[in-house]
Predict the 3D structure of the following.
Amino acid sequence: MSVFDGLKFRRVYSPIHNLDPRIKFVYVCAIFAVAIIFGELLPLIILFIMQIPFVLLAGVKRQWLRSMRGAAFLATIIFLTNFIFAFIGGRAMAESLENAVAMTLRFIVLVESFSVFFLTTSPDHLGLALEQTHIPYEFCFAFTTAVRFVPVLAEEAQTIMDAQKARGLELERGNFLKRIRNYIPILIPLIVSAIRRSLELAEAMESRAWGATKKRTNLYMLKMRRGDFVLILITIGILATAIYVRLYVMIPSFNELLRGLF
Amino acid sequence: MIEAQDIYFTYPNGVEALKGISLTIQNGEFVAIMGQNGAGKTTLVKHFNGLLKPTKGKVLIDEVDTTKVSVATLARNVGFVFQNPDHQLFSETVEDEIAFALKNFGFKENVTKRRVTWALNLLGLTQYRKTSPFMLSGGERKRVALASVLAWNPKILILDEPTIGQDYQQKEKLRQFILQMKAQRKTIIIVTHDVEFVAECNPRVLLMLEGKVVADGEARKVLTNLEILTQASIVPPQIAQIFLQLSDLELPKNVIDIYEAQGILLKILEKKAP
Amino acid sequence: MAIIETKNLTYTYPGGTKPSIKDVSIKVEKGEFTLITGPSGCGKTTLCRCFNGLIPHFYQGELKGEITVSGLNVAENPIHELAKHVGLVFQNPENQLFALSVEKDVAFGLENLGVPREEMRKRADWALQLAGIYDLRERAPHELSGGQQQRAAIASVLAMQPEVIVLDEPTSFLDPLGAKKIFEVIYELNRTLGITVLLVEHRLDLTARYANHIIILDEGKVVLDGEPRKILSSEEARLIGVGIPKATRLYHALQKDGVKLGNTIPLSSDEMVALLREALKP
């Protein structure tokens, strides 16, 4: 179940993992904003390259590359769509190309930064951040509980498939419609089991004084540390630079840059 | 006949669950596979209907290599009843549930109808024919799951932890039922860590520890071998415990049955009476 | 003063045609280790849920009669109040752990109660130590074995420092070794901390030795209630079909054949061995 591998957080301790998720999130939003501000290729290339130190520092290179590969399909579509429409619209070949690459890169920068965020933030860290941003506890709890049960559900799905295969169910055979119908004996037990599980969880929650007081306390507390302040400064710096450049600096196109260099 | 030829199995996550197991189970045998959780019992039996294929070595069911046929084909002869019936139940009625496998195996309509009625009768579920399986109690759902596997009359029956959550009477009924199946010359394999239940059934016992079979023999011999049981973290059945602790008093050692114990102790104690 | 007392307790689930428990009148004294058993469907699970208020507050339905736990009338107190006095451990270890680390789960009840962080830390560590899982506190529940998960569940109930702990077939899904560890943990809690324990179990051969009080239910009614050695020797217990320990059965079988083996009825193999050694002395 490699799909779920992405959600299985690996307990690696790097400086990036230890950063406050709220600050990381603000940083990612800032990158998002900057990527929107600029439609030109050059700044986007710079933005893309800027993320790489984070990836390396966090030690998540392999998983990051995997998520990049996942984005490749959509990225290609974005590239082709932009290129074709620009070209048809009457722009020159070089210009259309540059524009298409820029738009693709914008998409990739977004995927890149969110991917780094999720790869370096453990679900409980994230849940804790949600709690401390005063999001109602019910939602934070629903989130962390859901994540906690992902591996359990995955295993259960596998067991159910085994049980039904052992009764002669063939999942690989048949036309498209038949295959979908063949998944009913898998889905129903899974859903029924999920409902039973929720009931048992609710019982356990109630038995541990759920809802006793609105003023819930927390075993852990997120504290802002040196690294977080550094990240805040970096974020402000990037935003300030971006705004300044947007307003006052003429950004050359990639073409012009190349011509200027040679 | 089930044959395992020096099989090894490693899960995709790298855990080596079976480390070189060779065994033969003849037709009509009654075998209990025992061991702690994680010893590899369920992993082993999943090789018998092809759900798992060995990473090394071969498994032959009636001389057919399990890697050469589909699970559905093997399932025709190997019925596997999973531990949790809720992992199987999905139909609108008990009747449909029992007919599910029969339909998968391509049984004709009239044969299916007959088999369903037979299975319902066998497990005392006739009054629930049109009931939704989800409305039944835990014990009844277990019987529906069992009925749905017996319906296609497999030669080999595998029961994975059939005694979990069952009370004393239910276990008795299960024991009687197994004896009934045995009388019908079925090969029966139970995976369990319930020593008392195994002591009462007295099957052949395969004791597993960390992916290997460390003991293979009669229940009365294996369940009284304190050394091996301790290694495998299994507590001997109460009767065996009593006789093992009294082994210095020249009492017979391989006793697991309460009636046998009664007889032996009676003779010895009457001799002592003035 | 009984820590749990019920008078004619009768409960019907919503939409049920007949009561799941009928006229149950029992008394459990402080510090007792009470075994509750009976054939499937006898009402043991329903009774457990009455002790901490899940019945009637969570399950609704019709509750008649009286039930008082730690001096509180269950019908008149919300579950979160009762939870401070009665902890309930369920059958399935997996579905009692919701957090992503064991210690967060152990603190869950305390967080709900608004206990200050310092105090929480202390109590959580204390509970983890008692349950023997202190070094597993940072692990995720999915990484633990069934036995370890169940001990985590016990720790999270323990952290709330209840006077009573009720366990509903806690070892159903565990292997014998895991089950033994659980019984040892709760026996210790009963012995050293004086926590009243109510244990619902089928496997009397493993648990009868710990109990000083046994209640047997059948079809929703209390059929036998008293001292384990006496109760498990009765003909009635045999007829109901509970799993009387083999040692006890053997003792009585020999007695019927005219052999008396000392005065204490054995509940475990160790006790039986002691009796036999006495009798077989040259």
Notes: Residues 79 and 100 of chain A are 5 Å apart (CA to CA).
